[in-house]
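Re-running the complex after MR caught last week's input typo. The corrected sequence lines follow. Everything else is unchanged.
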Amino acid sequence: MRIVVTILAVAALASVPLWLRDPYLLNALITTGIFIIGAMSLNLLLGFTGQLSLGHIAFFGIGAYVSALTSLGFDIGLPGGVRLVHEPWPPIVGLVFAILIAGLCGYFVGLLSFRVRGAYFVIVTISFAEVVRLVALNWVELTQGPLALTNIPSIVLPLSGFGELTLRTKLQNYYLVLVVALVAYLLIARLVHSHFGRAMRGLMENETLAVSVGIDVTKTLTLAAVISAAIAGAAGSLYAHYIRIIDPEVFAFINTVTMVIMVISGGKGSLAGPVVGGLIFGLLPVALRPIMAPEAQWIAYGGVLMAILFVLPRGIVPSLAQRLVRRRSGTAALAPVALAETAAKEQA
Amino acid sequence: MSEFLQHLVNMLVLGGTYALLGIGLTLIFGIMNVVNFTHGVLYTFGAYVMFIVVQQLGLNFFLALPVAVLAGWLLGAAIELTLLRPLRGSDIDTTMLVMIGAWIAMQSGTLWIWGGVAKSVTTPFPESPLVLGPVSVSWLRLFVLAAAALLIVVTYLLINKTSLGRAMRATFQDHDTASLMGVNVDMIYTSTFAIGSSLAAAAGALLGPVYVIFPQMGDLAAVKAFAIVILGGLGNITGAVIGGFILALAEELGAGYVSSGYRDAMGFLIIIAVLIFKPTGLFARAERVG
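Corrected-run output:
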């Protein structure tokens, strides 16, 4: 059943460029898709380990900058009079580096998450993102600072026997994003249903119990952070090569908030959640644009976030799924869950 | 040497307002366990109240400050009653995200009403600074320092010498026991949030005229407030005051001797360093709640 729904959803998304010719809408779909990949990676941390990273855009931005710099080349002076010169490499290598270096940053943040949890982890991740933003803004020799890195090349796919394919059009980029999103989705699905996924959930539900049955907290949380950061880095790389211009504003806190809203509204801890939430919130500005001033759109954005937390605190996908299950199997089959829910309410 | 003295004087002025911001947030964070992302908006709000009262209504500069404090108190109480009270008992992530939603909505509202162009407030103080040997300081900044010091002392007395303050401290230590002893915890939460918000508004109203007033001015202020709270330890008012001055000193020295571009990075670096090496804050006496 779940596989059928997934295949139908992918087929529907793949068919979009066949009937949608409007370049503005296609562009909105591509950037939304890139942010959905970021949201899926955030969901791996937030939904399956319970750690809220509000600096997630740092990994995305690091991926974007690494990929852009790899494919543009740079020439910087290091302390001690040494010059570091890098000749441009193909963008696809940039994508690989983006994944590796973002993952490495995820490793350090993951180590930190072992020391501080909850609100403190949130504040550490925000600080990390802001420090990275300030470095991107001030290290002008490497990043051009506020002048931005421009003319970032499009991704070139080497096709064996047929030369190369440069992904320049919106159509090509749409399918590129779709493929990467699908790979990320399957990877996360695979992880979550593995032994490692059960260890993450065990830690989230009851850390003391999880530790007592032999789950390694540091290893599990760090690995989750590395994979999450690496996927976010891949999304950042796609963004850099699609938009083809990157400035320190990519690290803006509001971009993290966008990802968080996608995850929370869709349903954290649900694989489809970030996709559904991402499509709604990524396309909401497109829908609101004709009827509202940009400032009013953001007011609506904040309002909708609060409303979702009040009305659907578990998110759209889990709430709908629960309703569906209840209808199909009647209330009797759900009795234990209902019992547990009542008990939980009474406790609270 | 004279440059260093000048940095110290600047640190005093900046530190006073940072301390106000930090006290407000440490009360809310410590007592209510709410990661208050609207703190920066309240700071912005205080500055805009100053702008409205002085520039748009043409009233007295010294009158505008108490008006800003009162307006911050009212807005804080409104936020607590409408957004936080219904969510009592839900987990810390949910309230934090609701606060983020409120922050986005209010900041965009400010941008919508007043636009993105920076505003400035004319002050009754003379243009020429007070020169004391090698250092000079403007009269406006001296006033800011004095007003901040006054507000810090008032808050300290409120927390330590009044029955409301005693109830707040009891709630901080153990809200169940406080509730059993007859403390109206709901009322304490609303008062705490209102007081914390009024202090943030006061900081904005004081620093707004020193710099310029624009809708996003509160974003950095909020992060700095978090840095101060983490430095000083949760719910620790003295810690927040010292933390405010340490952050101001780090920024002044960082801007003066490293690079002015990294001035605002100091707060973030302090947060990361403190949480790695001493997560309970620099002045923690014992294990803290939260």
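None of the earlier attempt is carried over here. DSSP finds 15 helices and four strands in chain A. Chain A touches chain B at residues 52, 112, 115-116, 118-120, 122-124, 126-128, 130-131, 134-135, 137-138, 253-254, 257, 260, 264, 293, 295-299, 301-306, 309-310, 313, 348 (CB under 8 Å).
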